[in-house]
């Protein structure tokens, strides 16, 4: 059966395959359109398998409603691709509607005629680059979102989602900026896992001994160094970027605002 240009175009439009791949699949399928689609799916999966050991270490973040996602790509060239950005917007809208948390749950969310994962795989096959949903976060309470561009020629690559109670949204926005730039890991020290605190205390003690500090003041030294650790990793104990004479916690308390939790997603992380 002769393969026409119209046949090739129809297959390309349906699958997003390149012209030569589409023509080859139609030839192999002897003009059978459905069989050609199957062939392209198989070869597409094979190509994806070859890319599986590559890293989707670039990409973008996107937000919708009370949800935030990180969609990874291998290069910033793809990160600013219009189809990639459009897919991220569709994915985060579907994730928000489902209230999904984590990459596994988000990948299983229904999207168009398949799932989030199948939509990402389809675009990966078309683009020829590894794409991956790195993470997804959905909250239920009152939220504020901030998206940050690292470069003006790229879409947002850092995203912050803050869940809070209170009325001062301008303050919450400044807190979101704080999270984006200072990268705290927890809201308050009570949220820090005990094993992490124990590890930091052990390191602080061993370091003090190595420095020759007197045994009788070790506890005080460990306490002081743990205080510095909490300032680094706990949001409310960080000096506020907007007012370095106060901590974030002091500003929140004065405004009657409580940050219940937050997420920071970053392309490449």
Automatic annotation (TrEMBL):
MF (Gene Ontology): translation elongation factor activity
SUPFAM superfamilies found in the cross-reference section: Elongation factor Ts (EF-Ts), dimerisation domain (SSF54713), UBA-like (SSF46934)
Region of interest (Involved in Mg(2+) ion dislocation from EF-Tu), residue spans: 75-78
Protein's cellular compartments: Cytoplasm
Entry GO CC: cytoplasm
Residues that span the membrane, as ranges: none
InterPro entries referenced in this protein's UniProt entry, alphabetically: EF-Ts_dimer_sf (IPR036402), Transl_elong_EFTs/EF1B (IPR001816), Transl_elong_EFTs/EF1B_dimer (IPR014039), Transl_elong_Ts_CS (IPR018101), UBA-like_sf (IPR009060)
Record keywords, A-Z: Cytoplasm, Elongation factor, Protein biosynthesis
Span of domain Translation elongation factor EFTs/EF1B dimerisation: 68-268
UniProt keyword Membrane, yes or no: no
Function statement: Associates with the EF-Tu.GDP complex and induces the exchange of GDP to GTP. It remains bound to the aminoacyl-tRNA.EF-Tu.GTP complex up to the GTP hydrolysis stage on the ribosome.
NCBIfam families: tsf
Family per similarity comment: Belongs to the EF-Ts family.
PANTHER family linked to this entry: ELONGATION FACTOR TS (PTHR11741), ELONGATION FACTOR TS, MITOCHONDRIAL (PTHR11741:SF0)
HAMAP family: EF_Ts
UniProt name for this protein: Elongation factor Ts
Gene: tsf
């Amino acid at each position: 059966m002769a393969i026409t240009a119209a046949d090739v175009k129809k297959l390309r439009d349906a699958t997003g395959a390149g012209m030569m791949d589409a023509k080859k699949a139609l030839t192999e399928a002897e003009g059978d359109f459905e069989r050609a689609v199957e062939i392209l799916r198989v070869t597409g999966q094979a190509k994806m398998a070859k890319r599986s050991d590559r890293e989707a270490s670039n990409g973008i973040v996107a937000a919708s409603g009370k949800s935030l996602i990180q969609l990874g790509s291998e290069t910033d060239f793809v990160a600013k691709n219009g189809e990639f950005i459009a897919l991220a917007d569709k994915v985060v809208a579907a994730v928000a509607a489902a209230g999904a948390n984590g990459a596994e749950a988000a990948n299983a969310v229904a999207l168009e005629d398949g799932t989030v994962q199948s939509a990402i795989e389809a675009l990966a096959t078309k683009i020829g680059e590894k794409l991956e949903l790195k993470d997804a976060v959905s909250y239920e309470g009152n939220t504020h979102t901030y998206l940050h561009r690292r470069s003006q020629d790229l879409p947002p690559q850092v995203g912050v989602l803050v869940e809070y109670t209170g009325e001062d949204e301008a303050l919450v926005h400044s807190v979101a900026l704080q999270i984006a730039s200072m990268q705290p890991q927890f809201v308050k020290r009570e949220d820090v896992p005990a094993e992490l605190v124990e590890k930091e205390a052990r390191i602080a003690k061993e370091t003090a001994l190595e420095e020759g500090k007197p045994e009788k003041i070790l506890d005080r030294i460990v306490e002081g160094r743990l205080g510095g650790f909490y300032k680094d990793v706990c949001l409310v104990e960080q000096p506020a970027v907007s007012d370095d004479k106060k901590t974030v916690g002091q500003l929140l308390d004065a405004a009657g605002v409580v940050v219940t939790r937050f997420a920071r997603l970053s392309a490449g992380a």
